[in-house]
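Researcher: Please translate sequence to structure tokens.
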Amino acid sequence: MRRTVDARVTCQVGQTADMVWSVAVAHGPVISDETLAVTVGGVPMVFDEVAADAGARLHVVRGVPPGPLELTYHAVVEGQADPAEFSTLDDIVYRRPSRYCDSDTLYPFASAQFAGLEGKALLDAVTSWVGGHLAYVPGSSRPIDGAVDTFLAREGVCRDFAHLVVALLRARNVPARLVSVFAPGLDPMDFHAVAEAYVEGAWHVADATGLAPREAMVRIASGQDTADTAFLSVHAGMCELQDVVVGAVIDPALPVDDPRGLVQLR
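Model: Translation complete:
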């Protein structure tokens, strides 16, 4: 399995900014022909790479001056990574409510709706419920919306679907997290967000949108919610996003996704 991924992000920096980018493929699979560049007005910027959870690689650019900024990324991913590990800390952190996955508020509903279910049966039921009760509507949610907002609105985009899956699973005491991915076959193509749950002794991916085959996905970053996995965080200054173009293809062909099968992000 060979997956080729690309990203191009442009924005206008209004005031000197510190930025954290999360667009690179996480450590795990063999990565070749990889390039990452950040320029402002055509001038290359220096960045530092910082290791994060589950092999994620954050790229920090400090003191970005005002002007037109462009980030470009390209990588070829050969084969598959080993299955993601599960630690004692994971077992603690990924059961907790978080900023966008307010599982404590959803506890009464989850307890009633999914009573008596556990393991794969619970994961299937939660994924099916979210996919069946939410409409995928581009532009329908706000950046500040969490799982409860999505539950009430009954619509959203991929991150909203994933937040609700994660929150409902945590409400049933299952460790669950959000993962940003490159997703070959996604239409329209973009960065994608899915849920990952620890069931049946391993991390397994759930995508209630059903928009791309899970076996083809490539991990970028993992965390409690989108606050940990956003492709860009601006910690100082001002930046206006202008355009995001993402590409992800697989060779030899897209796999067929069985929605009832257990799939690991590799």
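Researcher: Any highlights?
Model: The two ends are 11 Å apart (CA to CA).
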